[in-house]
Amino acid sequence: MALALAGAAMAAYGQNPPRGQQEATDDSLAHELGSVVILPASAEELKREHKPLASLDRYLEGTPGVNMVRRGAFAWEPLLNGMATERSVITVDGMRIYGACTDKMDPITSYVESTNLSRARIKSGSSGSTHGATVAGSIDLERRREGFGHKPVLGGKVFAGFEGNNAERIGGTAMHYSDSTVYVNVDATYRRAGNYKAGYRPGMDRELEFSQYAKYNVSAIAGYRLRPGREVEASLIYDKATDVGYPALGMDVSLARAVIGSLQYRYMPQGRAITLWETKVYYNTVTHIMDDSKRPVVAMRMDMPGWTTTGGGYSKVHFSGRSHQANITFSAHASSALAEMTMYPDNPRERPMFMLTWPDVLTRYGGVQAEDRIGLGHGVDLSLHGGAALHENRLESMFGMRSLQLFHPDLSAGRTRLLPNVGGALAVNSGRFTHRAGFGYSERAPSVSEAYGYFLLNVSDNFDYMGNPDMRNESAFSMEWSSAFREERFDVEWAASWFEVNDYIIGKPVPGLMPMDLMAAGVKVYTQLPHAVLLNAALTAQYRLAGPWQVVAEASYRYGQASYGTRLPLIQPFQYKARLHYEGRRFNAEAALNGSAANRNSAEFGEMRKPAYAVVGLAMGKDWGIGKNQLTLKAGVDNLLDEYYSTFSDWQGIPRPGRNIYGHLIFSF
């Protein structure tokens, strides 16, 4: 199983899961070889977090092992271990959800809010295969649940925030109720922002056009105790974003909408080897409409809607023995993906051109995954995992199939693949030291875009991309190591991982094919390189000074290289962070420095050379007790020196925001 990458990062608004489930998850947090982002809710947690109403994107971006690809100010794409989302599995409470945008403008992380999440559980490599086949790992976004209590409790929060750079307004509420038989969590969050301004650069317009967005999210969870040890839970998410601009792309988004529902049953027997048996069924639908109608000049007007629908479920059984903590998960889901493109010529006499960019692809998946943590005594734990899945793709559109057969004459309507995985890790606790070493092997199938995509424009390298359904499974072998030292005032941890990916899927130019987009440089067809190597390294240190002062420093680096001298795109250069934190009884403050070396760009994939940068930020917070209630004020300034900069993961070199003065206000009752 994969290693811990650097401990838990601080974040916003969490509560404990339901009791019973809490016993299983909290126990795994203490021993599981993975990284966990905890989103704080309590008064003490809010003290430490300088920007509690920040989007989930910003919390994940601050986590070792995760980078975020930014095409605008909204809905960033998470990269895990330097690999794109095709190679990872992202779930919400274990539910598979598929984005409906061929340009990745709607990652799964965009359909939840930091205000309704309790944690993001991150697993690396093959250990993330519980709910789907992966080579990079998984991110499971767990929502906040109040859980059952001994007596009735009603509480909640009302919050508001303002970001000065883009005039973003944030508002919402989170309410919860619990007693011995019922718990309910309901929250709503609204965000609206205008165009943001980049840092100061002589002679340049600072406003970044088409970087605005508006979004609201409503989430509800209700649990009911049928009798001791037997519980049911229902949940619903409704998320809608409109008027979303993407300055790094040629199109914007007029609508991104998701409806996500589930029903779960939990059985917790007493005095048996089975400690928890949870079964969930779920259904979700995503609609995404790209729109260029607000762009003043385009080569050709286009409409690009997309839809995905997914239904599935899983059943997970937890076992506990004298020296074993084990679980086995059976999961299955079916998903359909359909995307269209209609091009409207400037000449009204010419007919519009229509094609299916995702030709109504049905994906069926069924798998089994087992994990066991074995206590060997004397501070030594051995973790083992393994599983296998069947993955099927089937084309439901005859029109789409005939279109693809122009390039793949032998294309069949369906294909089934076997996807195995296996791995393990050894952890040794010796006094103040903890050492871990792990390995893993896993395989994945090509994504819908990689296998069946039809003239998908990648703005970064300005090529149309074509799918290739004849590709083999992509496989990866990984090894990971970490060590940690902890004492009363000083903590330090380092972690490193190595991935060898075989049959690495990547787009390569094919001369003679004409692009569909008038401005594209050519057509790339997905193919496979013999292998690619990715290296990741991170170091975190924390020192508690005298009194309420604390210093935290982080450094990380990635390297990616494939066959034939191909530099992998979107690979993070050396980056560093340092924070000086003061925490008093009612007042806290922080000064932060974030910086990066110049990137090792891949010109083959349109990447620009990004120079080194260093950015300074300040933050402070104050809270007041009002009876049994609390009022918390957070204020600060990002990019204090108004630096003009762009990171390695900002498409088309779009700059990051300049100086931003913000304030967040939270009333808890």
Protein architecture, described:
This protein is mainly beta and 669 residues long. It has a single domain (9-668), classed as Maltoporin, Chain A, CATH 2.40.170. Helices cover 5% and strands 56% of the residues. It is built from 5 helices and 32 strands. It has helices at 21-31, 43-48, 56-61, 398-405, 448-452, and strands spanning 9-10, 35-38, 66-69, 77-80, 88-92, 95-96, 117-124, 137-143, 153-163, 168-178, 182-193, 213-227, 230-244, 252-267, 274-291, 301-320, 324-344, 353-377, 380-395, 414-430, 433-444, 456-458, 463-466, 474-486, 490-509, 523-544, 549-562, 575-583, 587-596, 613-626, 629-638, 660-668. It has a 22-stranded antiparallel β-barrel. A 6-stranded mixed sheet has the order 1-2-7-8-5-6, with no helix packed on it. The radius of gyration is 24 Å and the shape is globular. It starts with 8 loop residues before the first strand and ends with a strand. Mean pLDDT is 91; it is low at 1-33.
Key features?
disordered N terminus, Maltoporin, Chain A, globular, 669 residues, 22-stranded antiparallel barrel, mainly beta, 6-stranded mixed beta sheet, 32 strands
Set down the secondary structure blueprint.
Blueprint lengths: L8 E2 L10 H11 L3 E4 L4 H6 L7 H6 L4 E4 L7 E4 L7 E5 L2 E2 L20 E8 L12 E7 L9 E11 L4 E11 L3 E12 L19 E15 L2 E15 L7 E16 L6 E18 L9 E20 L3 E21 L8 E25 L2 E16 L2 H8 L8 E17 L2 E12 L3 H5 L3 E3 L4 E4 L7 E13 L3 E20 L13 E22 L4 E14 L12 E9 L3 E10 L16 E14 L2 E10 L21 E9 L1
Parallel strand pairs: 1-2, 5-8, 23-26
Antiparallel strand pairs: 2-7, 3-4, 5-6, 7-8, 9-10, 9-32, 10-11, 11-12, 12-13, 13-14, 14-15, 15-16, 16-17, 17-18, 18-19, 19-20, 20-21, 21-24, 22-23, 24-25, 25-26, 26-27, 27-28, 28-29, 29-30, 30-31, 31-32
